[in-house]
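Researcher: Before we compare anything, I want clean individual predictions. No alignment, no superposition, just each chain on its own. First chain goes here; please echo the sequence and then give the structure tokens.
Model: Echoing the first chain and its structure:
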Amino acid sequence: MISIENLTVEFGGFTLLDGISFVLNKNERIALTGKNGAGKSTLLKLIAGAQQPTNGTISSPKEVTIGYLPQQMKLNDEHTVKEEAALAFDHLKQLEGELERLHRQLAERTDYESDEYRQIIQRSTDVQELLLMSGINDFEAETEKTLLGLGFNRSDFDRPTHEFSGGWRMRIELAKILLRSPDLLLLDEPTNHLDIESIQWLENFLVSRTNAVILVSHDKAFLDNVTNRTIEIVLGNIHDYKVNYSKYLELRKERREQQLRAYENQQKQIQETEAFIERFRYKATKSNQVQSRIKQLEKIERIEVDEVDNSRLNLKFPPAPRSGSYPVVVENLAKHYGEHRVFSNVTFTINRGEKVAFVGKNGEGKSTLIKCIMGEIGFEGKLELGHNVKIGYFAQNQAQLLDENLTVFETIDQVAVGDIRTKIRDILGAFMFGGEASDKKVRVLSGGERTRLAMIRLLLEPVNLLILDEPTNHLDIASKEVLKKAIREFDGTAIIVSHDRDFLNELVGKVYEFGGGEVREHMGGIYDFLSKKRLENLQQLELSKSPVTNSQKEREVSPSEGKLSYQEQKEQNRLVRRKEKEIEEIEEKITRLDQQLAELEARLSTPEGASDLDLLQNYLETKNKLDVVMNNWERLTLELDGLKG
């Protein structure tokens, strides 16, 4: 579908991508991974045609269509949500207009035997078939279904887009791209602005209804559930693995270990050969053996070990000034916007040194409660901060508020005061902005680099209450682990708003669940909370019903409530058939791999096979393939059970 050959991208003498090549086939869903600034977003822009390479080519058939969702974009503010999303079908509406014109011509003309008349008939037939194949009659239903899946309510459909935040407007753009059904989807951090319910809907959509996908994401669960191939960008080069993200991590580790063993053995052989040559170089009786060893040395194909990018974020929060025993005390707190109740009767106390999580669907009041704590908005009830509480706040949009015309150094120098100004270079180096990187303009930084830069502000003044609203957005997986460790070692108090289960695990000791206008406290870590709720993960939490209030209990339920419409039932039946076919194909693959594995095991059990390293490598690769296929079979079986249930 897409062929990338010898692609090179250079910026002022720095090589970002160095002659990379790969082919994308239909039905492949690729995870593009690598450290922040490795070139992932740049590669997506190149494929989308939004940027040109220094050298190399990107080839695809003319008829291939591409949908591209960048990390940041500017959207039109002239339409309602539904009108903006429906722009995805503009090309179909143009075809409808053309069909109407053709029908009018056929009705008005009388030259039935002419070539022109026959051409009009042929064109109208072609257009009609195109419209039928495109599902033009269902475009309104598809638009609504996609908007609902991405978290909008029906009451939002007729609201103008300018009333929504950047994250919600990004969802509108994502809806448009999905509705166009392009041959290739390029998604750059699509989950950053989605709650967990919407993430799960998007996972199912990408797995069941798309042709080919290349996506950049730092959400491990999302990558594992969606992708079947992983391409890693390391120091300008790529490594290609035909497996999902978790399996790629295992294979990458095995590959490097094998390379190191082979490299060490070869180095030992080279050293012994060189020692022999040096020892007997000037002895006439050994001249033939020496020449033979020299030729042998020249013929050796040197083994190279994959380079590893060892630059790491070094993050440690300064010691926290001692605060009172109860940094945050809330009693009967309520917040309303007009008649809309965000939450009410909220009561809890956060103790000094606690790390707590705020979880729940977007729009249930997590960020609103943080604004109450920060004193940015008014509220009803009691909310008190303890003695000597000093807050360090990281907001979701912090990275977007940076001045793009300043350099990295100027951004920090502008807000630093006192002795800290003498340590700016050291701090920047700890955040991987050492050397020339500190002179980069903010506008050329990647999303992850901007997030790191915004986080430096938290280090400029010692605080004892950290409030982090989605701090992992745009951070790569390695940086997320470093941030997690730093928060865990922070001796102050922390409130973390996050949808990332892996990040919250072993970090928080208390969970506050937002939903249905209530905030409920759960003691224990994130997995304790999930266990109590009898849930497997946070996705199920956000798919579950909000806590039932008395007014909801009294509400009369329609007899038809909960039933699927005809179109929904039809779509569900189609998905069931598709899943059954996929399971049948995967079971055939399992049978083939089982047979291959049995044959390889039999050969390995012989004396000759036991010493055959290539045979062992083949066995390990086949075993890994079988593991991947078995995981896919298990996932598809569970999905089929869910559809039928």
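Researcher: Okay. Second chain, same rules.
Model: Second chain and its structure:
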Amino acid sequence: MTVSPPEMDRVLEARSISKSFGPVHALTDVSILVRPGAVHALVGENGAGKSTLAKVLAGIEQPSSGTMTIDGAAFAPRDRADAKRAGVNMVPQQLSLVGELSLVENYLLVGSRRLVSRRSARALLKATLERARVDVDLDLPTATLSQAHRQLGEIVVALAEGAHTLILDEPTASLGPLEVGGLFEHLRSLCDLGTAVVLITHRLDEVRQVADDLTVLSHGENVHHGSAARLESTEIARLMVGELPPPAARSERRPGATVLRAAGVVAASTRDASLDGVDLAVRAGEIVGIAGVAGSGQNLLLDVLGGFVKPDSGTVAFAGTEAGSRAGASAAAFQRAGLAWIPEERTEAVVPAMSLRENLTVYSAAVGAARKRGGATRDARTGGTQTVEDTLSAYDVRPVRPELAASGLSGGNQQKLLAARELGASPAPRVVLAYGPTQGLDLRASQAIRERLVDLAVGGSAVVVASHDLEEILGVADRVVVMFAGRIVADLPIAEADTERIGRAIAGLVDGSAPDSPARGDVE
């Protein structure tokens, strides 16, 4: 589709933008030019200033200095609503749709035209869907939509509000390869219409796949701004983080006794595939990766394994306690027994209004006290000689300011804060359940978290890692379990888990049932 000249004139430009939060310089003299009809990738380490720059462009934060223009005219939004009226809108990493409401109702809630009728709102959204070549149900509660459709729905609402420049913060963090490909097709369609897209991402293959232009930030400063063409992933990585040390060699481990077991688990969900007779055993010293496209049941399985959802039938056993349809064990009981938990949605585990210190210590102290009453002695890593500052530094949480509210951190640094709390306990957790533990993290931080998971397994922890990112799973797993439509359809040792076999299983192209999980003895 040919873009009309008026649409092509809408260039968003920021010049010499600086932004400080007290003594912290988040941005220093940063410039960016966003062209209509192009995808502009914005990359950098966690804490490099990407989210701050995006919020300045979207009117959510005010720059300390610098200027912005749209089509040569001054652009100085006082708030997000002001920026939206000028055509610049940001879709946050943590999607803002109200799950109980449909897309039509979400638009009525946030749209600038407050007196618009439901009929006219639906007609506008339907026209926007057709223009963007997107197929999303307008009338279902958005909580029942897949993650990919919620992402597209948020984009459609932004377009209906009149956005000509879309800022997407880590839109692929919770999407699998198929969903990512579909999203990028839609983004290219939007670019054909003249929409400008700013894509914040840590996946360098995505930069090469879809980006026309590229800005790389490092420690709040521009280190590259220009065409994304002819830049190899290794060069982009070097610009972002410098030279990375080689990853630690995969160690040979002999798994011990079964620590966590699900037997005949059946559970229902409105947001994920219902579980249908799932059996899974995880042994001490073992890392089990759980793969599958979004909505295959892996999210619900981790909720059940963690005691957060009680199965309709079947049982989950861990450390002498059992949770099932007739059992009384809960997530709190499992945590007292030594379970660490990293959910897909970090907002379920990090309290934004609490300080970094409180997020690290209050939760840990409460769980630690409960464990002492139950005979366990797990103390927070922040106890003893380990200070909060030490823990934040060890997990590279930026800035190292214990009294800063967690809401003041970028999404990636909130993820590192969560990892510090859950993976940095002493003694180490007996079981780790982690969903996408490196989502939103840069290369260096991702490597550090994966090495920590391996270290925990070497020390005897049983580790389960679920992720939409197959690379994340293959980087740490000893076994890869593949889920499809709420069932385990493959259970492969890492030596047999090539991308072709996993890909066929993810697509449901397998014959027969999955093999039994190993170590079917009693749970230790």
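Researcher: What stands out in the second chain?
Model: The chain is about 30% helix and 25% strand. Additionally, The radius of gyration is 23 Å.
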